[in-house]
Amino acid sequence: MSAGEIGEVRLNGGEPLENVPRSVVELGHQIVALNEEAGSPGVWRLLFKVRG
Predict the structure, then answer these.
(1) Cα separation of 38 and 25, whole Å?
(2) Domain annotation covers residue 1
(3) I want to staple 52 with a disulfide (CB 3.0 to 4.6 A). Which of 3, 14, 29, 33 is the partner?
(4) Is 28:36 a contact under the CB 8 Å cutoff?
(5) Measuring CA to CA, which residue among 33, 29, 24 is closest to residue 52?
(6) CA 40, CA 43: separation in Å to the nearest integer?
(7) CA 29, 15, 46, 50: dihedral to nearest 10 degrees?
(8) Distance CA 37, CA 44 (A)
(9) How do residues 1-52 score in pLDDT, each as one tens digit?
(10) Number of domains within the chain
(11) Could you tell me the residue range of the domain that residue 15 belongs to?
């Protein structure tokens, strides 16, 4: 992905929900949104902006 692009990851709760956002930030990317998907309890959608 190129700098400035928006990436999307779908996560289950628990460890992925704890670890993936932390890793995204540690790699220098910016979290844009982290929301539970409507109609899919326990599934989260993480949007992040790729660092430049």
Answers:
(1) 25
(2) no
(3) 3
(4) no
(5) 29
(6) 6
(7) 20
(8) 6
(9) 999 999 999 999 899 999 999 999 999 999 999 999 999 999 999 999 999 8
(10) 1
(11) 6-49
8 Å CB contact between 49 and 2: no
- What are the residues facing 47 on neighbouring strands? 8, 33
Q: Which of 51, 40, 36 minimizes the C-alpha distance to 6?
A: 51
Nearest CA to 21 out of 2, 44, 40, 3 is that of: 44
Asked, for residue 16, whether it belongs to a domain, the answer is: yes
Q: What token pair was written down for 45?
A: 């959608």
Q: Name the amino acid, one letter, at 6.
A: I
DSSP summary character for residue 5: P
Please check whether residue 21 lies inside any domain of the structure.
yes
pTM assigned to the model: 0.88
